[in-house]
Amino acid sequence: MKINNIGRMSVNPYKKQAEKVDKLEIQLKKDQIQISDEALQLQKIGNVDKARQQKVEELQDKVSSGQYEVDSKKVAQKLYDFWNN
């Protein structure tokens, strides 16, 4: 009489290991956000200076009313200085 595979029916040792790996992969796939220290400082400082805000508003008013004029010589000089320095 010959008896084969007693107690080994449908037992796969690799199946349990594969299930453990799948569970770990599910746990590791969580979204993460990392914000640098510089970004946190910028968020705290984010308030624009009042003087700068006032200047921006003045420029917007001039542009919308048509009173804003561009000095082409100044623009050309700034471009020239930028590219040659």
From TrEMBL:
Q: Which domain of life is it from?
A: Bacteria
User: Which region is the signal sequence?
Assistant: none
Q: What does the UniProt keyword field contain?
A: Bacterial flagellum biogenesis, Cell projection, Cilium, Flagellum, Repressor, Transcription, Transcription regulation
List the Pfam families hit by this protein, alphabetically. FlgM (PF04316)
Give the InterPro entries listed for this entry. Answer: Anti-sigma-28_factor_FlgM_sf (IPR035890), FlgM (IPR007412), FlgM_C (IPR031316)
Q: Where is the Anti-sigma-28 factor FlgM C-terminal domain?
A: 31-80
Q: Record's family?
A: Belongs to the FlgM family.
User: What's the protein here called?
Assistant: Negative regulator of flagellin synthesis
- What is the organism field in this record? Cytobacillus spartinae
**What gene is this protein a product of?**
flgM
